[in-house]
Amino acid sequence: MALKVVGAGLGRSGTMSMKLALEQLGLGPCHHMIEVFQHLESVPWWVAAAQGRPDWDLIFKDYVACVDYPSARYWREIADHYPNAKVLLTVRDPDTWFESTQATIFAPGGVTANPPEPMKEFLGAITGDFQGHLHERAFMTDYFRRHTDAVKAAIAPERLLVYEAGEGWERLCAFLGVPVPDTPFPKANTREDFPAAVANIRTEAGLS
Question: pTM for the full model?
Fold first, then answer.
């Protein structure tokens, strides 16, 4: 199946909540980094993509949408491959984003700093643009802003929604052309939830 939504927002910009929201709206399954850990057979496919040999139809054969890493690393290529897909850019205050990354995905001593052997090349490709600068606030917040500007410049306005994390259903549903649910917008993968979630994922994937 062809993707209908391409998520260009960086990890820790509300992407897990957005995954759940899209699936609730009928645009699922939605690919997210968690899917990679649950399907380690896909890691070589992503490594091939990093090497310039992507097979997007294989990677996304079971998905309707994608958000978070690793998709956010290849948003331009994926959006080009699926020209009829809408592009969703999740954003938040860059400093708040940076602080969130330091407590979670880019935490010193965390999975990005010390990836398990099967994931080293895969994670290295994702962080290649900022490896060596993960803990530098000025560099990373500038990177976040430049990423946002690049997406806005590349994607036609009618195809793009810039979505502020936590803003709710209305603009998202209008953009996707679906009814607004009568339930609260999902909230998941908070800083407090993250350590236990990662430990559980690693155990299930046999990476502990």
Answer: 0.90
